[in-house]
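4.2 Preliminary Data

To establish feasibility before requesting continued support, the project team ran the inverse folding procedure on a target of 423 residues. The structure was first converted into the token representation described in Section 3, and no sequence information of any kind was made available to the design step. The complete token record follows.
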């Protein structure tokens, strides 16, 4: 007998909670930019690099994480990683200067790198294959809940208690997730006495070897394409909502920090909703490519309006952010798309490879935009923090559009799987 849905979701929810925490740390700098720049005396480029340290270690860990998920199973990864993330959050919260704060961001990024891949591995092991795309979208939904919690709620809490105290609370929450994961999560349903959905358990799977497995994954055309394509979509969302959106909205649209954080949360909430909808829709229609193309095209058009349409009212800006965020949820299709393109036993490795590509988007775009803002800075300072003009922001955000345009073109070269395992 396969596991009851309630049992499967209990196991899945532990990984989902850790992914929520991962997203919280990913975008938290967006609403404490002023505090970080003031406390650590940072320029835009330095702030961009501090935020991107999370992505540097996150990206570096993706392929090792995918391999470990296939070889060791998700339970050990998802129980140990939160302990490391706890240490990283403590370093970041208590650091007197930029060096230890950066080290904390590196530790956080490296540890939470296992969250999404481990969660996808649980999805593959504990649920029927036909639900994989939907679960990938639901995983994104939980992650973005963490991002939303790092929006207006975090801003209000920071105003009351300070950003360092809030980071300490996040460290405690991450530690508790580690405990619950070890107690509740198992790698396969058979470890709890149920029948497995996959054809082989961890101990009996054929092992092609690490290098041979990577060669099999990269031998498929879709793998390389689906590393680069969603990176433009996610990089745009997290460059805006994860770092530069709040200062842009406060300086160019005259909003308060809390109101700006609320608008970026509109983008994230819509993204969270779009993920499972696009996953379900591609499953329902039996087609990955066309649905992905439609979402990517709509996201590109939405960002173009947000960046370049002059004199946007607050309501129209919110509507564009809502549409753009929802359309950006199409990137959740990437994981089902690539999983169907490689051997089933390498699902963890393929997820790690794609997630590495995805996170290269914000890893590159966040500091690149910071460098461009500094280059175009006109010398204006307010309360010890640099203020950048509309032209500087438009130039910086144009980097997002360039990547999105290339993603849209490359989607035409992907090979449709029709929602069926190809190998």
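Position-by-position output of the design step:
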């Amino acid at each position: 007998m396969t596991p009851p849905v309630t049992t499967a979701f209990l196991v899945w929810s532990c990984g989902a909670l850790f992914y929520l925490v991962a997203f919280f740390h990913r975008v938290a700098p967006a609403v404490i930019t002023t505090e970080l720049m003031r406390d650590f005396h940072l320029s835009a480029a330095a702030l961009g690099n501090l935020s991107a340290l999370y992505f540097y270690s996150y990206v570096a860990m993706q392929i090792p994480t995918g391999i470990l998920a296939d070889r060791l199973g998700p339970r050990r990864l998802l129980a140990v990683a939160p302990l490391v993330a706890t240490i990283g959050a403590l370093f970041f919260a208590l650091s007197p200067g930029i060096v230890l704060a950066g080290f904390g961001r590196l530790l956080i990024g490296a540890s939470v790198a296992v969250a999404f891949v481990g969660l996808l591995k649980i999805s593959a092991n504990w649920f029927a294959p036909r639900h994989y795309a939907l679960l990938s979208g639901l995983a994104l939904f939980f992650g973005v809940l963490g991002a939303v919690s790092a929006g207006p709620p975090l801003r209000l809490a920071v105003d009351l208690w300070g950003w360092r105290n809030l980071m300490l609370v996040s460290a405690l929450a991450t530690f508790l997730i580690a405990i619950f994961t070890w107690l509740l999560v198992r790698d396969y349903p058979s470890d709890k006495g149920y029948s497995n959905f996959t054809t082989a358990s961890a101990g009996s799977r054929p092992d092609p070897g690490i290098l041979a497995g990577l060669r099999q994954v990269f031998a498929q055309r879709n793998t390389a394409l689906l590393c680069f394509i969603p990176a433009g979509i996610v990089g745009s969302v997290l460059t805006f909502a994860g770092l530069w959106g709040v200062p842009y909205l406060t300086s160019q649209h005259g909003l308060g920090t809390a109101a700006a954080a609320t608008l970026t949360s509109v983008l994230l909430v819509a993204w969270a909703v779009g993920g499972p909808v696009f996953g379900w829709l591609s499953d329902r229609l039996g087609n990955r490519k066309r649905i992905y193309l439609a979402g990517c095209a709509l996201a590109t058009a939405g960002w173009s309006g947000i960046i370049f349409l002059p004199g946007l009212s607050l309501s129209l800006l919110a509507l564009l952010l809502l549409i753009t965020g929802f359309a950006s949820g199409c990137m959740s299709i990437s994981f089902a798309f690539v999983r169907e393109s490689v051997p089933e036993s390498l699902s963890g490795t393929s997820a790690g490879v794609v997630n590495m590509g995805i996170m290269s988007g914000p890893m590159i775009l966040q500091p690149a935009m910071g460098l461009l803002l500094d280059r175009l800075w006109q010398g204006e300072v307010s309360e010890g923090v640099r203020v950048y003009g509309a032209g500087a922001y438009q130039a910086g955000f144009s980097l997002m559009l360039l990547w999105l345009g290339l993603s849209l073109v490359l989607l035409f070269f992907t090979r449709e799987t029709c929602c069926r395992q190809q190998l």
